[in-house]
Amino acid sequence: VRSEERVEHARRVFAQREREAAARAAIEAMHRVTGENVVEMYDSGEWGQTYYYAMEFVDGETLTERLIRERRISWREVIEITAQICKALKAAHNTGIVHRDLKPSNLLMGKNGKVKLTDFGVAHVFAGDQLTATGGVIGTVEYMSPEQAQGKRVDKRSDIYSLGAVMYVMLTGRPPFTGQSALDIAQKHKFGQFDS
């Protein structure tokens, strides 16, 4: 029993250290990425065993909230929004960071018309060896690239694929692929099986 307790304790300690490393990496990524279309990071630190960060307040709503309200966005406005998202992705990619979770809920739409990318919680540094936090799949399946869904190494092209999925949902009011499970959706991304 004692050896089982030690193994369980070691697992908990390892999991805690992994969460802490992920939190530090996310905060570091948010500090590194700057640009007019990226939510600005003001401060970060550690209080006790809790990591915190303070970031810019964007007066507005998420793209998800807007899509719920309006269902679709005109193609002209989709182009304007997409151009701003591209600027945010370029800022991330120029610092060697892949966002890995580009989706409508991570895009803040300011009342002033400015689009801001947020949530670098699963961002990945190009030069790093780590594919994911635990070697599994990280991201939101409706918007992830096929290689990301397979747990393979991602690069900036994965974010561009996700941008295409975000554009699709802005134009049509629904994601390009749906399914009964995350696996169903991932398979459709991999094999290009569009919903009819």
What is the element layout, followed by pairings?
Elements: H1 2-32, E1 41-47, E2 50-55, E3 60-62, H2 63-70, H3 75-94, E4 97-98, E5 107-110, E6 115-117, E7 124-125, H4 146-149, H5 156-172, H6 182-191
Antiparallel strand pairs: 1-2, 3-5, 4-7, 5-6
Report the order of strands and helices: HEEEHHEEEEHHH
Q: What structural class do helix, strand and pairing data support?
A: alpha+beta
- The largest beta-sheet arranges its strands as 3-5-6
Secondary structure tally: strands: 7
Please mark out the parts with pLDDT under 50 across 5 or more consecutive residues, or reply none.
126-135
Distance between the termini: 56 Å
Oligomeric grouping of the chains: single chain
User: Based on CA inertia axes, which overall geometry fits?
Assistant: globular
- Helix count equals 6
What percentage of amino acids are in beta strands? 5-15%
Overall average pLDDT: 83
The largest sheet is: 3 strands, antiparallel
What is the helix fraction of residues, given as a range? 40-55%
Care to give the gist of this entry?
With 196 residues, this protein is of the alpha+beta class.
For the structure shown, list the relevant keywords:
3-stranded antiparallel beta sheet; two-stranded antiparallel ribbon; alpha+beta; 196 residues; globular
How would you describe the overall organization of this protein?
With 196 residues, the chain is an alpha+beta fold. It is 46% helix and 14% strand. It has helices at 2-32, 63-70, 75-94, 146-149, 156-172, 182-191, and strands at residues 41-47, 50-55, 60-62, 97-98, 107-110, 115-117, 124-125. The strands form 3 sheets. Strands 3-5-6 form a 3-stranded antiparallel beta sheet. β5 and β6 form a beta hairpin. α3 runs antiparallel to α5 (156-172). Residues 126-135 have low confidence and may be disordered.
